[in-house]
Amino acid sequence: MPYVHLTTNCFADFLGAGGLDRTYFELMLERTRAALEDLRAKRADASLPLLALPAARDDLDSVMAVAADFRDRFDHVVVLGTGGSSLGGRSISALADGGFGPRSGAPRLWFMDNVDPHSFDALLAGLELSRTGFLVISKSGTTAETLTQFLICTEAVRSAQGEAELSSRFTIITEPGDNALRRIAGRLGMAILDHDPGIGGRYSALSLVGLLPAAIAGLDPAAVRAGAAEVLDAALAADAPDKVEPAIGAAIAVGLLREQKIATTVLMPYVDRLADFGLWFRQLWAESLGKNGTGTTPIRALGTVDQHSQLQLYLDGPHDKMFTLIMLGCADAGARVPEDLAGDASLSYLAGRTMGDLMEAEQSATASTLVANHRPTRIFRLAALDERVMGGLMMHFMLETILAAHLLGVDPFDQPAVEHGKELTRHRLAGERETTS
Amino acid sequence: MPYVHLTTNCFADFLGAGGLDRTYFELMLERTRAALEDLRAKRADASLPLLALPAARDDLDSVMAVAADFRDRFDHVVVLGTGGSSLGGRSISALADGGFGPRSGAPRLWFMDNVDPHSFDALLAGLELSRTGFLVISKSGTTAETLTQFLICTEAVRSAQGEAELSSRFTIITEPGDNALRRIAGRLGMAILDHDPGIGGRYSALSLVGLLPAAIAGLDPAAVRAGAAEVLDAALAADAPDKVEPAIGAAIAVGLLREQKIATTVLMPYVDRLADFGLWFRQLWAESLGKNGTGTTPIRALGTVDQHSQLQLYLDGPHDKMFTLIMLGCADAGARVPEDLAGDASLSYLAGRTMGDLMEAEQSATASTLVANHRPTRIFRLAALDERVMGGLMMHFMLETILAAHLLGVDPFDQPAVEHGKELTRHRLAGERETTS
């Protein structure tokens, strides 16, 4: 990525014990060649829709139109959906609203991804429903949690505002064809947008699933796509895997797993606005690779906070983790520690420094300390954090995940193990019903 | 815990492959006997202050007085502090404010535990400073992040409200004796409360560090202590380790690590209000046990959300995790899916059910699925979620951590590895200063 400086300290020739043997790494890296070729072919013949998204612009007109309407009419927008239907939009939107309120003129977004009745009651009691819109996202249109949320919110609006209001308050994203969500929404006259059936939830952030919430938050969806396109184009244009950063990342992760039994991967941004991005990555990596008894376990951390929570374990616990730090240059940023208030001899190192100076020093100190403790560490150093960088990061990690799946011999796009639990949930609800009615 | 029903499915005789051999477990459990005896002795001679907290009440008068004053004067209370100075109060306070606004009459609490300049600027720009109080927590009084936050907030109040206002806006918690925070706060006339020097940050939730924010949020600190006392008393009164739930938990965790190489422990509450509790546990476990190359890695998950993110990995990835689910009975709770709106044949299992019914069914389906996939699983089933239960859960996990440390042969109360990074941060800040001034 042109706007990212990437440093890798994962090899035994530098790290010593615990690092990856460079010959083994090169073997792994060479094995990504076929997968890269496959991705090139799939982009050329449009058989993997995900790869067409970065260059697409024609669908953004409708995204912008719906977003403008939502921004115009609503002070609050509740996004109903879970997993991939929630985390992409949430990650991008965090660029505009990092937990301290929306951008001027934008509604506040509420990403409701759970079915905790206590939370839902609190949300609905606190919202001014007459100024609230709902965006309901379920690819299959059959997700039990999302349907339950949707039907309960529909009833709340109907009770408070009347049935005639329903059609203008809810916008649905679901795949084409027949499904329960589409049938109900259609009957109630709600607007329905198509979820691309060829793009799974955890790969949908660059589609309208992630970009519509981002546009409502006041962000530029085209810039997210442009950033993703830069990373995708660079990866597929390279003439060898050693020039493809996502391939290098995949070869390191799988190499460390195979050679060093490093089965945990920690993603640790030093930026509050990337905390949700960590959740998005965690789903992408876990659900794509965790199958057939293999995969590595992603952990979402946050600097500097987790220096005071997890760093002791990271530095001195078992040698079973690799670390990806995401740093954002912030020297001179933020407020300054006043010289007179910090006129304490023990605080001379802080007096006159900004909060960003401290963040800078902590980032680099932690990176140095991890490496000094022989922990495989790579660093994404961002020159800025905006829509373009976010799109680039997302594409980087989607490609890295797909290539790691290739090396592990698993399908990055399925999630077969979770179906049984969904069945069981339906049966239990239906069964309880029979005994109580 | 009398108000918790605990189910354990971690043994090979039930789980099959991947479970813990019961004989090995009993060996581990027997080894907790000496540690329990040690805890009894330390409670009797008051040499471990943590164990005296549950029964203490005399310090709560000042907690309640400060809380009443803060509640009276402020609409917002910013809690400055990181790690153990933040997570205990945040976990308990989440019972009153789960992200959807404070209890009626209570100020909104902002737990600021990072030094991201972007977040801090957003916070200070959004707060009405004339109605904002600050609680500053640092045991040592030398934490760089907390001092930086404190001095920047002090300057913000001084600029907006005048120097005379400073003494009434800030309350400090730090240990007795001389330190930078205490010196500066003393000079500015701020109220200073004593942090017990014998209680480390990650074990401080039951002290004023955790209970003052909770009281400001409108919760009952005495009830938190009472719940902790029930668990502590039951553990120390039992005549054998097999009647001590925290000892059983520690023996399972260490047994699974030693015998099955299960090095990851997932804490997965099915309650939004326990999401922050997961962060508290994650620090407690990681920082207490992750040393000398041993320890297991805690993961904070959340049901049902992570069923759509991590469950694929949990069920079908490597056999390297144990699971602790925390469930809260919620049948019939929350809003009901209206029969007419859900009049779709495929939704008959949902029609007329409540959101809580769905949550109930999902909890038990996931537990069954984990066990069916031979994943060691235990379940805390809570009869309610209030201050007493929170205090009990905290004491359970503190004891389990201390006993696990005993089995692993590490000191649960130190964190030696992180000191080097702190030194490095100070040097880098001081060094940069020299080159730029």
Can you characterise this structure?
Two copies of one chain form a homodimer. The first copy, chain A, has helices spanning 12-15, 22-44, 60-73, 84-93, 117-126, 144-161, 166-169, 180-187, 208-216, 221-237, 245-260, 275-289, 311-316, 355-372, 387-408, 419-436; strands at residues 4-9, 76-80, 108-112, 132-137, 170-174, 191-194, 264-269, 297-300, 321-328, 377-382. Chain A is of the alpha/beta class. The first copy, chain A, has two domains: 4-40 and 224-410, Glucose-6-phosphate isomerase like protein, domain 1 (Rossmann fold, 3-Layer(aba) Sandwich); 60-219, 3-Layer(aba) Sandwich (Rossmann fold), CATH 3.40.50. In chain A, the strands form two sheets. In chain A, strands 1-10-9-7-8 form a five-stranded mixed beta sheet, sandwiched between helices. A five-stranded parallel beta sheet of chain A has the order 3-2-4-5-6, with helices on both faces. In chain A, helix 12 (275-289) links the parallel strand 7 (264-269) and strand 8 (297-300). In chain A, helix 2 crosses helix 11 (245-260) and helix 4 (84-93) runs parallel beside helix 9. The first copy, chain A, starts with a strand and ends with a helix.
